[in-house]
Amino acid sequence: MTTASRVNDPGFGPGAPPLGGEAARVDQLRRTFQLRRFGSGYDRVQVDRLFDNLVGGMSGRGPMVSDAELDPSQFNLVPGGYFEAEVDAALKEVRDILGRRR
Fold first, then answer.
1. pLDDT tens-digit profile of 32-47?
2. 85 with 52: CB under 8 angstroms?
3. Which of 31, 23, 32, 28 has the alpha carbon at shortest distance from 98?
4. Hey, is 82 helix, strand or coil?
């Protein structure tokens, strides 16, 4: 689900209950990703989908993401994609957050 489609999702947007704690942190991480102006980076659609699923799972709005889904090698490199280092660092923090929940 892209940021634009989140507006029409009843689980997100102005009428949705606010995200708490860890889910809010993961959503905040995702909002910091920058697109490359030159060169390639991680596919934006794939990364956004993963982070939407993470936030949904952490907030009880969907199933939890598996450890395998947190592997950055799953992302295609595309022109104008997200900077890999930013996404990799966010995924490391997500793994730490999920590790503390167990």
1. 999 999 999 999 999 9
2. no
3. 23
4. strand
CA distances from 34 to 20, 44, 83 (A): 24, 10, 6
Distance between CA 81 and CA 43 in Å, rounded?
5
What pTM was estimated for this model as a whole? 0.79
Taking Cα atoms as reference points, which of 22, 55, 48, 46 lies closest to residue 33? 48
Backbone angles phi, psi at 20, to 5 degrees: -110, 155
As a whole number of angstroms, the distance between CA 82 and CA 79 comes to: 9
- Phi first, then psi: give them for residue 79, nearest 5 degrees: -60, 135
- As a whole number of Å, the end-to-end CA separation of the chain is 27
